[in-house]
Design a protein that fits this description.
It is a single chain. α1 packs antiparallel against α2 and α2 (about 35-55) packs antiparallel against α4. A five-stranded antiparallel β-sheet has the order 1-2-3-5-4, with helices on one face. It has about 140 residues and is α+β, with helices and mostly antiparallel strands. It contains four helices and five strands; from the N terminus they run βααββααββ. The model has no long low-confidence stretch (mean pLDDT about 85). The chain has one domain: Heat Shock Protein 90, CATH 3.30.565.
Length: about 140
């Protein structure tokens, strides 16, 4: 069964758990394993946290959008996007331990965590125009609905 959802919310750190819960409820319809669901929730948390913290550094109420697509082939696509400041150097931002935050405040592992839990991660960004993180996950291929 193909299914899709789209959600928009303010870029406040407290909305991370809301986003995580919404995506979890949507993905649960595909009957993932506990491990798969945990991995997806963690990756979503990292993507939303990055957007809330880095996209709108002036603490404005920018908008974060999440789109989820679920296919009958048990493939999940999750897109987290914002219209914030953008990422100046995507390759550098994807390096483990790199952060633009104050020393000691952030670990710089957001993209690394997303990559480790998802099958594929694409990051698109333009300075001053925002960022789009697309995560792909194939649910257990051996499981039949």
């Amino acid at each position: 069964m193909d299914n899709k959802m789209k959600l928009e919310f303010y870029s406040r750190p407290e909305n991370e758990s809301f986003a995580r819960s919404a995506v979890s409820a949507f993905i649960a319809l595909m009957d993932p394993t506990i491990e798969e669901l945990t991995e997806i929730k963690t990756a979503v948390s990292e993507a939303v946290s990055n957007a809330a913290i880095h996209a709108y550094p002036d603490n404005s109420d920018g908008i974060i959008t999440i789109e989820c697509h679920a296919s009958a082939g048990r493939r999940i696509v999750i897109i987290v996007s914002d219209d914030g400041v953008g990422i100046e150097n995507i390759e550098q931002a994807r390096e483990p331990l790199f952060t633009t935050g104050k020393s000691g405040e952030r670990s710089g592992m957001g993209f690394t965590v997303m990559e480790s839990f998802m099958d594929k991660l694409d990051v698109e960004s333009k300075k001053g125009q925002g960022t789009r993180v697309t995560m792909f996950k194939n649910l257990d291929a051996g499981y039949e609905l």
